[in-house]
């Protein structure tokens, strides 16, 4: 017995491996050296395809990086009934679970539909040509099946269809397999020497198999066409608002561009900002789409021939000064106000006096952008910056600030309020205070706290026209504030059944009626001037900020998608409007309004509040006279009064009039208190002891020392 040689066996294995590597090396040399152009030559039959890579529109976040607006891709699924053919019922059954729609509804949407298309034909009769207009019934090839389907669900549906076989395909494949097996069995049962018998088996097998193969080829061809074009997607980009209606007026909404993406590109329709932050920063929010050019042959990409591959760049993110929690506090308080006051509208603004940052801005009525419905013009109005109104007695903060700043009056100076009714000399005009407040000789601080119109008019007459107008301009009442969500816009609305572009005006700049004919008898207590709630809030914030007016700011910074800061928005000082000493005195007077003036219901537990009430009669549009039934109420204030952190304004258009509930001190002050109490808790403001009443001027009937006023 001979022993096998292990060395010989090893050499055989080595020889086999060397032969394999030699064949592989030879092939590589042929492809890379001998015939280097062969891939390019083969690419002549390859198709060049441009694959687009969509970019997301940038997000909008609050000051704590809580998402307020986001983008997500979705799919609108459409169907071509002609491509579906006889597979439509089965497609409906298989697709229904992925679409989340009942099978019957899907099947109904896969039925071929028609539409009427207008056509014109030129008819020539001799030298005369006329046009005949008619309609032709055509088949629709893009039936809508599902809208806003999540992208991952469409991907799962597309993968399922590309790998799944229809029932008829499976039946024919089964018949073919059965015939093949039967033929094999028959051949085995036929003796090997019976050649004629084997030929009869083969001939019979081919006769039975031929129609099955032909039908299977046709079914597979139709099935492949159904899979490719029967159901097809339209990519859409959806703007998502995680907090629903909160901040809707500030954020705005988007609309689709009129430019449609190229057919087959699978690119979403470009979104355009329509209102609010979406419109103001539309360019920054827009991303840059990517693109890849590839060549495909034999169902595969020729990777070495890829020409360009550009990655998409998402739009920039916008970080706002809005605080989602503060916004929620304000909006819930406005909902409470709508239930109790039943006004036509409510508005609120919360601002930080030292920086001008807007923490919250809300209006009622409002709308939810997630509903995908275009809001009504009534709900679309950002009334805090767009709806002007005569501010009424809240404007007295400007009148008294000017008088104190010019040295015309001191807080402890006596003013004769004429018992609440005064005929202004020389102008045939009688000024009246509220019937419940009839005073004669009182301090200026008392007249301010009880909102005496007579006292304000007397101060206005003393300072003169030019001085008064100068302070009005300095406080920002005759110009736009420049807030970032105040751009003008054109929106599409259906008017009388016809789609039209309707103008939505931007931020209102303020105006004084009859500028050349200035009426000192009405302007000092807030009539004859039209301003927005934001303008009044910023004027009060200037007093809280030691007399310095800040520009309101909604945007803190712009960032790339990966968090790199592109632009930082710093606080911007507009101007100093009053001296620091005047601001302190005005804070004292405004604090007195809440302690025992017209704004008692604005008090916040454990905090000193400085504020001012306002109530204005509205002009009746029919009579063009001031109405005794329709009012505009407001309250503006800040706290803590000695170190202001927050300034808030509340306005109500035509609140309930029962029990004189239309007064600013009764309609808006309680809402201010509700908001202030929750904001103080949320912002963790440190409670401070209330200011001792002995530091303020003594009102008639009070006990305590008097102050000397400002130096």
State which percent range the strand residues make up: 25-35%
- Average the pLDDT over all residues and give the rounded result: 83
In which range does the helix fraction lie? 25-40%
The CATH H-level homologous superfamily of the largest domain: DD-peptidase/beta-lactamase superfamily
Structural class: alpha+beta
Report low-confidence residues grouped into runs of 5 or more: 37-43, 690-698, 700-711
Per CATH, the class of the largest domain reads Alpha Beta
The total beta strand count reads 30
- The CATH architecture of the largest domain can be given as 3-Layer(aba) Sandwich
What's the shape? elongated
Q: Write down the domain tally.
A: 2
Report the biggest beta sheet as strand number plus sense, adding barrel if it closes.
7 strands, mixed
| CATH fold annotation of the largest domain | Beta-lactamase
Q: What descriptors fit this protein?
A:
711 residues, alpha+beta, Penicillin-binding protein 2a (Domain 2), Beta-lactamase, seven-stranded mixed beta sheet, five-stranded antiparallel beta sheet, 30 strands, 25% strand, disordered C terminus
Short description:
By secondary structure, this protein is of the alpha+beta class. It is built from 22 helices and 30 strands.
Tell me what you see in this structure.
With 711 residues, this protein is an alpha+beta fold. The chain folds into two domains: 53-103 and 142-318, Penicillin-binding protein 2a (Domain 2) (Alpha-Beta Complex), CATH 3.90.1310; 324-366 and 382-695, Beta-lactamase, CATH 3.40.710.10. It has 22 helices and 30 strands. β17 and β18 (429-432) form a beta hairpin. Mean pLDDT is 83; it is low at 37-43, 690-698 and 700-711.
């Amino acid at each position: 017995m001979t022993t096998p040689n292990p060395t010989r066996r090893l050499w055989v294995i080595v020889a086999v491996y060397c032969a394999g590597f030699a064949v592989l090396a030879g092939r590589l040399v042929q492809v890379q050296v001998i015939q280097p152009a062969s891939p390019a030559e083969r690419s002549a039959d390859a198709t060049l395809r441009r694959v687009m890579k969509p970019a997301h529109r940038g997000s909008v976040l609050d000051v704590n990086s809580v998402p307020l607006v986001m983008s997500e891709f979705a799919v609108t699924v459409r169907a071509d009934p002609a491509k579906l053919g006889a597979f439509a019922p089965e497609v409906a059954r298989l697709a229904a679970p992925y679409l989340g729609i009942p099978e019957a509804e899907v099947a109904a949407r896969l039925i071929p539909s028609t539409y009427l298309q207008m056509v014109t034909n030129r008819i020539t009769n001799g030298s005369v040509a006329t046009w005949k207009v008619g309609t032709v019934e055509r088949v629709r090839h893009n039936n809508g099946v599902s809208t806003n389907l999540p992208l991952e669900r469409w991907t799962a549906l597309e993968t399922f269809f590309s790998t799944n076989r229809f029932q008829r395909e499976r039946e024919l494949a089964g018949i073919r397999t059965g015939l093949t097996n039967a033929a094999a069995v028959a051949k085995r049962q036929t003796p090997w020497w019976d050649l004629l018998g084997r030929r009869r088996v083969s001939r019979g097998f081919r006769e039975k198999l031929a129609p099955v193969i032909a039908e299977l080829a046709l079914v597979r061809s139709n099935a492949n066409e159904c899979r490719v074009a029967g159901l097809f997607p339209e990519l859409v980009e959806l703007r998502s608002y995680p907090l629903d209606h909160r901040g809707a007026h500030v954020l705005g909404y988007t609309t689709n561009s009129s430019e449609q993406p190229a057919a087959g590109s699978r690119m979403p329709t470009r979104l355009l900002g329509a209102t609010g932050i979406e419109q103001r920063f539309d360019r920054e929010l827009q991303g840059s789409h990517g693109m890849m050019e590839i060549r495909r042959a034999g169902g595969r990409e020729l990777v070495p021939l890829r020409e360009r591959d550009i990655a998409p760049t998402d739009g920039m993110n916008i970080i706002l000064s809005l605080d989602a929690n503060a916004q929620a506090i304000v909006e819930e308080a406005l909902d409470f106000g709508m239930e109790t006051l039943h006004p036509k509208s409510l508005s609120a603004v919360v601002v930080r006096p030292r920086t001008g940052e807007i923490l919250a801005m809300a209006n009622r009525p409002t709308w939810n952008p997630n509903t995908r419905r275009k809001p009504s013009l009534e709900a679309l109005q950002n009334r805090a910056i767009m709806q002007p109104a005569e501010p009424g007695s809240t404007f007295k903060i400007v009148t008294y600030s000017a008088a104190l700043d010019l040295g015309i009056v001191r807080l402890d100076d006596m003013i004769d309020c004429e018992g609440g009714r005064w005929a202004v000399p020389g102008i045939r005009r009688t000024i009246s205070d509220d019937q419940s407040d009839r005073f004669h000789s009182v301090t200026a601080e008392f007249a301010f706290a009880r909102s005496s119109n007579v006292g304000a008019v007397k101060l206005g007459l003393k300072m003169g026209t030019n001085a008064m107008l100068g302070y009005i301009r300095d406080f920002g009442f005759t110009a736009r504030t420049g807030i970032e969500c105040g751009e003008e816009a054109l929106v599409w609305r259906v008017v009388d059944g016809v789609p039209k572009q309707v103008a939505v005006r931007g931020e209102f700049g303020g105006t004084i009626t009859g500028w050349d004919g200035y009426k000192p008898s009405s302007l000092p207590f807030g009539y004859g001037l039209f301003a927005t709630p934001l303008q009044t809030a910023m004027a009060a914030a200037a007093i809280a900020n030691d007399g310095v007016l800040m520009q309101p700011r909604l945007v803190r910074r712009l960032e790339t998608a990966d968090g790199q800061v592109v632009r930082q928005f710093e606080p911007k000082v507009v101007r100093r409007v009053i001296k620091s000493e005047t601001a302190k005195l005005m804070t004292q007077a405004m604090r007195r309004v809440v302690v025992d003036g017209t704004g008692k219901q604005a008090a916040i537990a454990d905090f000193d509040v400085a504020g001012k009430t306002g109530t204005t009669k509205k002009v009746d549009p029919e009579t063009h006279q001031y109405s005794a039934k329709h009012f505009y109420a407001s309250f503006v204030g800040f706290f803590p009064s000695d170190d202001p952190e927050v300034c808030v304004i509340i306005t109500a258009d035509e609140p309930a009039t029962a029990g004189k509930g239309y007064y600013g001190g009764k309609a808006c002050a309680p809402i201010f208190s509700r908001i202030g109490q929750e904001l103080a808790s949320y912002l963790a403001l440190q409670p401070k002891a209330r200011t001792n009443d002995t530091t303020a001027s003594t009102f008639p009937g009070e006990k305590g020392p008097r102050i000397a006023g400002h130096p």
